[in-house]
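Q: What would this complex look like in 3D?
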Amino acid sequence: MFMIEKAFKGGREYWIWLTCLLSIIVIGFCFYLRQLDAGLAITGLSRDVSWGLYIAQFTFFVGVAASAVMVVLPYYLHDAKEFGRVAILGEFLAISAVVVCMLFIFVDLGQPARILNIILYPSPRSLMFWDMISLSGYLLLNAIMAFVSLRAEYEESRAPQWIKPLALISIPWAVSIHTVTAFLYSGLAGRSFWLTAILAPRFLASAFAAGPALLILLCLALEKFASYDAGKEAIKKLAVIMTYAMAMNVFFVLVETFTVLYSGIPEHLEHFKYLYFGLDGSFNLVAWMWTSMLFAIAAVVLLLTPAWRGRFLPLACVLVFLSLLLDKGLGLIVGGFVPSPLGSVTHYAPTLPECCIVAGIWALGAFLITVFYKIVLVVRKGVAG
Amino acid sequence: MKITRKDFLRLSGLSILAAGAKQAVRAVEQERLTKSRPAARAVRWGMAVDLKKCREKDGCNACVHACNSAHNIPQFADRAHEVKWIWTEPFATVFPFAKGSYSTESDSGVPVPLMCNHCANPPCTRVCPTQATWKRGDGIVMMDWHRCIGCRYCIAACPYGSRSFNWQDPRPAIANINPEFPTRTKGVVEKCNFCEERLARGQKPACVDACPQGIFTFGNLADPDSELRQLLRARFAVQRQPELGTGPSIYYLV
Amino acid sequence: MRDRIWIFAGLAVFVAALTAPFWWAHAVAMPLAKRPDLVLPANQKECVVPTETMRAMHMQLLVNWREDVVRRGDRQYVAYNGKIYEKSLTHTCLGCHNKAEFCDRCHAYSGVSTPSCWNCHNEPQTRIAGSTP
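A: Here is my prediction, written as structure tokens for the whole assembly.
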């Protein structure tokens, strides 16, 4: 069913790449064992900043997972044939991203052995409960769609008819996973940085920019290393989607900045001050936030100019991805906690163990994508020749 | 036995539905049981704190010390990992409406004891994915350290910063373990529990008994004739961020 | 089949090796492992539940007590003989039993690792200073 045996057909570069990823995964795992033993004290988290890199990265990668819908939607809903060769790549990216998300949640838990309590004692009033349901459902949906359609391709038969309704369900479901994640934050009365209605639209816009950015980069990598043509038209269309989404995202950020700056309410303003200018002697996020903003503006300029969008596409994708990785995957979460409800500014910087665990999970995501894409390539090459 | 794919899917779907229904019934039952335990008369535990009498700035921290000893609260050197159920902060920090205001120049140094507000509408219990924290019938926001998975969503949700997380095993940081009360383990969230174990024995909370100035008045907010309610009628009291709709049970007499 | 004898011989050796733990001790008249030397409480003759039931179900009882006390505030346990006890591991169970001489001895003998209860719950009447090993 899963055609895993196809993943063993690779050249030297393939196995070296997998080995490198595996070593990073093992290092991350060893540090995680240390964290299980010593507790989360080995991270840079504190009583005031109780969520950090783990949850921030989870937030970012939920967005990447949701963006698979950007390729599925045109292909299944609008019969846009040019997405034919890239739809399955998007679905596998979604699967890897959801697994990465779930791992980030898992390593953040203080008592991970009790994780089944979320299922044993359902709490429908908690957004985290719905997040678990939507993420699990999304993983299942994409896994079924991807493997069933790939299997059908391998057997050179048509994909079964029931795939179509699943694909249609996955579209609002993808929107829902990221909306639910946004609601995790935007419903908290005590955290004024997050208590904004525009958080969910902002999340969706940044998701539909970051996901296609990564997908385009992966397609270009596949073209370079595996001579797989994902379709020039598809990549162009993805770039257009990314452009609109990134432009909207920058617009939403500016809109929020206006409201905060113009109204001047200190409680809301302090979070922005901390992130972009530093507060009470704590400056460690300032450089990252300005870098993120610079990358975002540069990316939008590149993408909005038609001549440059084609020529500098890889660069634009990298700029989009990194900008959003820093904005959502660091600034958004830490900014919500500083200053604390009692106004104290606590320095947060991820420690070495924390970074290694994050790197291990990234590497696991990359490992999954590599294996999945290898299976796709082998199936398609086999079918073609 | 031969079974068609359609029948198999139908059977699986029904089974999952049945299992889900069982969970839903169990959840509703739990909810009903935890709600149906108030005393015969309505009880809502609350507390008034008389800020005029607090002598913390003269070096008194009897309430903090009593709570820490009674509940085995670890004392960590690293402030980032501190665990505290009751502590004091300056007036202007706790009540931002007083910050920068000329009229309270004299009050800006007044220490304010802070603890869990045991809100009537707590945001923390709403967000807990396992109901490891919930609101009891008598108003106390409880913690179940056996069920907590340590996700720290409740810490994010609390607008008052009342909750602490055990970033590491607390036992090495407890000088004298009180055997009457359990310690906690690493990876769970904790906070003031209104001394519910003492209330069960008919005693008042530890901080209330320990204060030499008697600044804490603990009582039943639902009883209009209680000492607490009479006090609140006699003197003006403020609360922390009541505009958020949390409905705190702690009143500060200024 | 010339190999038949070798196959059966090998099978016989295998089965003998597999079941060795059951017959070896009898064959060589080995002394049985020393049963745990439990020190019973001096002052009480009855537990909250009859002994045989307790042996089988003490963990279940503790879990029920835990849910009752923590989640429902219900601290009173009416025993089978009508006596009322407080539902508490530290006060009631360890009020009579000594953890090291009773609980740990059986758990060590049977190799049942003690659950994580002791990470948090204490023994009564001993002021423990500093860290536990």
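A: To summarize the key features: The radius of gyration of chain B is 22 Å. The helical segments of chain B are 5-35, 62-70, 91-94, 123-127, 153-157, 196-199, 206-210, 227-234.
Q: Very helpful, thank you.
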